[in-house]
Design goal:
The chain folds into 2 domains: 6-156, Creatinase/prolidase N-terminal domain (Creatine Amidinohydrolase, Chain A, domain 1), CATH 3.40.350; 162-439, Creatine Amidinohydrolase, CATH 3.90.230.10. It is built from 12 helices and 13 strands. The chain has helices at residues 6-28, 56-61, 147-157, 162-187, 192-203, 267-283, 292-309, 317-323, 325-329, 388-396, 405-411, 435-439, and strands spanning 32-36, 71-74, 81-85, 107-111, 128-130, 215-218, 240-249, 252-261, 377-380, 383-385, 416-418, 421-424, 431-432. The longest helix has 26 residues, at 162-187. The chain binds glycine and manganese (II) ion (2 copies).
């Protein structure tokens, strides 16, 4: 088995998914698992469709992200069946005939219309667990998403197979190459829009293909956590650049953030370097048995210690955490599970039989509360920002003395800093999937 070749890793991946599907069926008392790929969605009162987003369960089984109206059928003890809709259509490019590493491992049936799938589905719809959106219904085959099956499959999805990791590494390399092109465009004085275009060109993916809208923020815009405006003209002076942008490969996401300063001798660059060093230290804590909630709280303390060192905070890191001042500077979670979705499912799952683990009090935006286990991939994305709205609340809440406002005024024109890598938890040392991609 070649650990970088998806074709040689796919049979083991498929065997894992079949075993998980068997267990999911046992838990919901059904005989067949059905996964529709999904239908196109149309804008209201219009014939224009939205970008198609395939059912994540479907792309878990098959590296297909653009095939609509198709079905994956799993029956324990049998080869998976794929009903593949390839319409006769001269208006659009139709999906190419089934090809690739997956074809020889499944029974493929090519049909021309969605309805032709019906006789190829198991005879008794009531014996099927059907995972998908309501709009994927075909005749009696109506997605019902049995909770015991979904709870199990979503929980298990956190554990990546070697095949999935190979695809995720390719997504990382694609995104890293594009990040480097974007940094070069920033240093050449490009506008946000131009940087975005440079990014997409280098990634060879357009805005509908990247796994989430690019965040390309110059100067103060870095303080808007999900800034997606893309100014067409460059600012008079580009002081700083926060870029949170990913790439997709076979439906798997990379999610990477970098922050750059135009002046390598600036205090802002020194702050970026300090956050970067702290982020790398946090990545080394992605270890089996570690409670991600604790990593999040530890990240607050590490970041507040940096702000104290730089004179932004006048109180200890512990005091800033206790009073909530730290949340004004670091107002989002440390990270999340990633894979088939950039914010992957089941970050709060208490077990594969349901239940949720709440985020810690005062940290409502943390998206991952599970204990880390080998095979999980999480992002580690600490940040510090100068956000007027949140700093006003610090003043209103009686904590103005905790902050050196002159320091804040000096750093506010730079917006903020976030550094984000995607990290694999193993049985030993964590593997940072992102950093080596920049070296390639
Ligand atoms: N790009 C969104 C996030 O980092 O979670
Ligand atoms: Mn992220
Ligand atoms: Mn991100």
């Amino acid at each position: 088995m070649n650990p970088t070749d998806p074709a040689s890793l796919y049979p083991q991946h498929l065997a894992t998914l079949c075993a998980r599907a068997d267990e999911a069926l046992a838990r919901c008392g059904r005989d067949h698992l059905l996964i529709p790929s999904g239908r196109r969605h149309y804008q209201v009162f219009d014939d224009r469709d939205y970008t198609f987003a395939v059912n994540p369960h479907f792309k878990h089984w098959l590296p297909l992200t653009t095939v609509t109206d198709s079905w994956l059928v799993h029956t324990p003890g049998q080869r998976p069946r794929v009903v593949y809709v390839q319409p006769h259509d001269y208006w659009h490019v139709v999906p190419e005939s089934p090809n690739g590493w997956w074809v020889e491992h499944v029974d493929v049936h090519v049909v021309r219309t969605p309805e032709q799938a019906l006789p190829l589905l198991p005879a008794v719809a009531a014996r099927c667990a059907i995972l998908g959106e309501a709009g994927s219904a075909l005749g009696d085959y109506v997605p019902d998403n049995p909770a015991p099956a979904l709870d199990y499959l979503h929980y298990q999805r956190a554990f990546k197979t070697p095949y999935e990791l190979a695809l995720m590494r390719t997504a990382q390399r694609r995104a890293a190459r594009a990040h480097q092109a974007a940094e070069a465009a920033f240093r050449a004085g490009a506008s946000e829009f131009e940087i975005h275009m440079a990014y997409c060109t280098a990634a060879r993916q357009d805005a509908t293909e990247v796994p989430y809208p690019n965040i390309i923020a110059l100067n103060e815009h870095g303080a808007v956590l999900h800034y997606t405006e893309l100014d067409r003209a460059p600012p008079p002076e580009s002081r700083s650049f926060l870029i949170d942008a990913g790439a997709s490969h076979c439906g798997y996401a990379a999610d990477i953030t970098r922050t750059h300063a135009s002046d390598p001798g600036s205090e802002f660059q020194a702050l970026v370097d300090a956050v970067d060093a702290a982020q790398q230290a946090m990545c080394t804590t992605v270890r089996a048995g570690a409670d991600y909630r604790q990593l999040h709280v530890d990240a607050h303390l590490a970041l507040m210690a940096i702000l104290r060192d730089f004179g932004v905070l006048r109180v200890s890191a512990e005091a800033a955490l206790a009073t909530g001042v730290s949340a004004a500077f670091f107002p989002h979670g440390l990270g999340h599970l990633i894979g088939l979705q950039v914010h992957d499912v089941a970050g709060f799952a208490a077990s594969d039989r349901g239940g949720t683990i709440a985020p810690p009090q005062g940290h409502p935006y943390l998206r991952m509360t599970r204990v880390l286990e080998p095979g999980m991939v999480v992002t580690i994305e600490p940040g510090v920002y100068f956000i007027d709205m949140l700093l006003d609340e610090v003043r209103k809440n009686g904590h103005a003395d905790s902050v050196d406002w002159d320091k804040v005024a000096a750093l506010r024109p730079y917006g903020g800093i976030r550094i984000e890598d995607d990290v694999l938890c193993t049985t030993g040392e964590p593997e940072n999937l992102t950093r080596p991609a920049f070296d390639d």
